Amino acid sequence: MGPYSNQNWRNSNVEQANLQEGSADGSADGSSYVLRENILDAFDFPEMIEDYLIELEIRNYSPNTIKTYRSIINNFYKFLLTQKNLYDERLVLRAFKRYIRYLKRERKVSQNYIYLVTVVVKKFFEFGGINILKEIKTPKRTKSLPKSLSEDEVHRLIHAMDKSDSNNGSTHHLEASKLRNKVILAILYSTGLRVSELVNLRISSIDPEDRTIRIRGKGEKDRIVLFDGRTQKLLEDYLEKRSQDSEYLFINRSGNHLTPRYIQMMIKDYAKAAGIKKRVTPHILRHSFATHLLKHGVDIRAIQQLLGHSNLSTTQIYTSVDMHTLKNVYDQAKMG
Length: 336
Hints:
The protein has two domains: 1-142, DNA polymerase, domain 1, CATH 1.10.150; 151-335, hpI Integrase, Chain A, CATH 1.10.443. It has 14 helices and three strands. It has helices at residues 39-42, 45-58, 63-81, 89-105, 111-127, 151-158, 171-191, 195-199, 229-241, 260-273, 282-295, 300-307, 312-318, 323-335, and strands spanning 206-207, 212-216, 222-226. It has a three-stranded antiparallel beta sheet with strand order 1-2-3.
């Protein structure tokens, strides 16, 4: 019995309860039998969901990850509520497969989302002591080449607002915001930081002279990242002109640190101003950082360390060399 079950939930392979006509108690010969119980009655799913999310928070999962897990589990629970006859493992297993089919056919979700749903629901069931989905194999993820910006596009993005006009009534604030945003773009590109790492940057973690930043990344793992000389000058100028007092590096007018959503929208606006037609996000700047380092001959294991990846295979997905560079390397090898 799992910790969220109000009584034993019986597997149909162990005990079948076939309803037969002709007897008040459901049996042809008058003998009694135990009715199987619906899994939604046997387990307190709302309580189990809440406890699982608390467990994730205790284990230092990021707020964004917890939000994603909450959405996936709640959506699957809502689907289960529409299903009938969930009286044994076989039927629940079938309901899960129907849900995956529904996501593919009706919701048209990506293969990577199917992978995530499968992983999350399996972990959630295991947490609640429901060992039903063990036989479900985790589907493969698609490994498409990540998109990245060219070095010229990155330069245009960072300098997109250098010559933009400001309203005279709020020139100081706009100029301060433009400088802050320029530093944000420069740091994202020169360090390869995740947006979640960027918004939580504290001034105390930065060494301007050594051009290093100490990062607390995924899994509470620390790493050191580097930034270039141009970013160093921008950063020093920004810190000198910043008027608010806060431990966080990037803050708004109220002194609160910025949100990932703000960073995403700001980059979108800057890309539009720079005339870049591609979709530009913080993660694409991270891709660009890795790709350009590889292009200029930096060893992939050094890039792995800077990105904070546990596995080299993850880094290899991030670092796709552009076709122009690949052709040059190929031609040089053939000519040699």
